[in-house]
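Support case: user asked for a sample of complex input and structure output to validate their parser. Sending the pair below.
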Amino acid sequence: MASEFRLPDIGEGLTGAEIVRWHIAPGEPVAADQPLVEIETDKSIVDIPSPYAGTLLYRGAAAGETLPVGAVLAVIGAAGETWPPAGPAERAGTDRAAPIVGTLREQAQDLTRPAPAPEPLPAPEPLPRPGPGSGLAAGPAAGPASGSAPGSVAGSAAGPVAARPRALPLVRKLAASLGVDLREVAGTGPHATVTRADVTAAAAAEPPAAAPAEPAGADDERRPLSRLRRTIAANLTRAWAEIPMVTAFDEVPVGRLLAARAALQRRHGVRVPIDALLIAAVLPVLRAYPEFNASLDGDTLVLHRRYDIGIAVDTPDGLLVAVLADAGRHGLLALAAEVRRLGPAARARSLPPAELTGQTFTISNVGAIGGGHGTPLVPLGTTGILAAGRATPKPVVDGSTVRVAPVLPLSLSYDHRVIDGALGRRFLAMLAEQLAEPVLFLA
Amino acid sequence: MVTRTLAQAINHALGLALSDRDDVVLLGEDIGAAGGVFRLTDGLLDRFGPGRVIDTPVAESGIVGVGYGMAVAGLRPVLELQFMGFSYPAFDQVISHVSRIRNRSRHRFTAPLVIRMPYGGGIGAAEHHSESTEALYAHVPGLKVVVPSRPGDAAGLLRSAIEDPDPVVFLEPIRLYRAVQEELPDRPPLVPLGAAAIERPGTDVTLIAWGAMMTETRAAAAELAADGVSAEVLDVRSLVPLDVAAIAGSVTKTGRAVVVHEAPRTGGFGAEIVAQIQQRCLYSLLAPVARVTGWDTVFPLKRAEQHYLPGTARIVAAARRTLAG
Amino acid sequence: MLQILAPDGHLTAEPPATVDSRGLYRAMVLARAYDRRGTALQRQGRLATYASFEGQEAAQIGAAAALRRDDWLVASYRDSAAMWHHGYPLELLIAGRTGHERGGAPPESVNVLPPSITVGGHMLHAVGLAWAERYRHVDRVALTMFGDGATSEGDFHEAMNFAGVYRVGCVFLCQNNGWAISLPTERQTAVAALADKAIGYGMPGVRVDGNDVLAVYQATEAAVLRARGGDGPTLIEAVTYRVGPHTTADDPGRYRTEEQTEAWRQRDPIDRLRRYLHAGGHWTPDWQDDLDREAAALVDAAVAAAEALPAFTAGEIFDATFAELPPVLAEQRGWATAAGGVGEPDGGG
């Protein structure tokens, strides 16, 4: 059985050697360790001893030729054996010892980047566009590898806006099992994360697959609820189930308030929505009674230091709450401008999710439509909501006389787990006082 | 423009550094007359003389301790330890002094030195010559650790490391020394420390690797592409400082990640990367983050080496698992 | 063993021409005052731990005095006398012992590394420093101080070997004070004289009476001149004695007798020099009083300054890790300094 002897790297980094002189001719016998051939490396001329005993069948190169490391130097076998054999070449055991420092692969893979841009990738599945501030701006089409400049780590937190909704892996699995598309669920967690409850609510809001129990009237109209309506329904169902809420009522003469509003509008030439005045009036009351600007987290009442005021906006598709963020840092005119922006934007359904969730207190002013008192529902994640009706002329007792003045109905619903009746009364009382005497909050 | 292998690019960069700055000195065993056991310092003794290319006694701790003293005095030593497996006698000097003198002296004394060492396996070498313990160095506060996988990056990172005011461990994947080449300008651009590189953009899964494993990772991405899977390939390049923003950005985009290294699994640097991904991208993950690593065993000798080193197939399989269900 | 001043204060050889004996005496008195205070402060809980050098003042100050101002000194945690003499501010030496990193930052002009807490690792640093100065064609030398125990560490061998092979301009000063914590020198090494180890490295070895400040000065001056002249390194063994414990956490009674210590007290370096000065009319009780007062005032001021240093805030512990904080570390710094001190990643950022 012939054994191949491949040229070893005896120089620890040797790439090839020149054959100087063969000591054995093909057909001649050779003993183990007997000098077989003299080779020249970069450094010296060296005798290579035969690793095998037998007959030299084949020489890999002639004297004067160069052989690369790893190529067959000699084949030693039995006398009379032919090599290479007729059939497919069989590799004999070729355990050439590796040099101490190892054997480097010599053929280099070329990593040079081609000068033009690489082939465009297949278009990915359509996903919502990354928002502004996305780290993907550099884009995949850049030719040389765009090593990202080492940026701040916090940049990763704000980072590229996820092309898909945020949700814990467990929630994704739940959504998949319930057949809910996460992209269609409004997330109520931090940073608009979709929570498990959001998913179950969305699943529950699916129209029932079963046919109605009994045939209804032949000309009944069946109107499937819109996605928004389903979402509203799910949220209200939970709020109703989870929050023991009560409502306190009051009425406030707002003659001075309306006069102040008119004066401001004349002076500044802009519309000052009632909502803006309500917000301005309610902020000091929220500061005085922080329980109304809070969330109940298990057994902990989280008092928010920021005032993100939700404003109910009536839209053709249903009631939306637009959130005026950080109202506490706005003056009245800035509040007015924000309210003027949010209302139409909400109606046009152009507000991003971040401006539709996360309010810390809600004001619902349906006064424009008409109506007096009501029992608004406290939205999930908050502890209070104020509804104002339409200011209508009413008889008002002033000392010992009766006069006619515009009176605004107020309805304040709150989470009775954390706010007692007395506190609710006090809140309303302070608010009423401010609305009656606007100088108290405009100054 | 010249095509250079990884080894040639490093050799070229050392020559540029020695030319550009007269405070750069090289110390190491067999780096002068012999030009280095892998020829990385070939020709430099002739060009710059024995005062600047210094053949030292066999004394790893001495090389680093003396180099440290030189750095404190204001030179920019580039120290070579012949293999990562022989760097351990010097580890005390690294962790007790080199990495912490700036902190110990509140910036009064600093050690702007570079320690180069060949590392990693896959060349069938004898015991100790295939080490991949970069996690030990990355764990030392005050030390920077970089690993190029391409000739251009090797030249650019080495130049940046020499210019860096802090000590840098520069790891050279032995298996790639002559196995990769790249066409480079005569002055390869500096590559900043702390910056990863998206070598290949993709959308379905992020493959994260460094050093010699980049070869298998690139091959895995190509194989996945043939199957219609768009893999993004991220070369970490800098373990410390780590480019967390790039990693988090990529995984947030793709939702899936595979981290690849040849070092042993437990406590390997991949674990740190996975922890960062978990912290910053959990809400975008579509699958658990996978690790493809060496086993928690001593690196096998040549004849069983192939059972240890992660190959392209393991990386492809891991990527597919992140895409399933 | 080289000696110039016998324990009873009389000269046995010509004193070195350049020496300032009164200056050396003053320096040793100040050093001892600090040393006594160090132990006391530790007993009061004001220093974390203290390593007394009592008995070794001559070995340290005699050597440091032979250096040029800009020569490097790389010394150990016990060598405060030498470091102070060579310009390291006393309040910083003390601050380091109170546990404040500011103690590791001497002024720009002071070429003294912070005291080495590791045993045996720092001699290599001196070799590198001296080598770099020569590379820059500057004739500064480096003196490194270490004890008998350090000669057993592998890095001692590597440092001596490098220095010998490359003829580096550094001086190795070994204070053989008889003890490495509890191991006596005769069990630390098989040679009778540590100076003999120099043979193995191709450099001269000189053995001196370490409690004779004049001899230490002379031997070091010669070695420094050799180094500065490009003739390479020298090993000096200063034979002395550690009168106190290894540190304030050590109880020497567990491993040695009081007789040995008492015998060495008879060879005290400060007494010895005072006798010599007194015999020559250069010491008076009034001068001693002045020195004692000066020492007390200096030490008091240094202690006060060290203790007045405000401790680092949570953020400041980050600030000298690198030249500039990389993003991951800057983020950690933010967590560490967040209100309430409970900052951590907020999970899913």
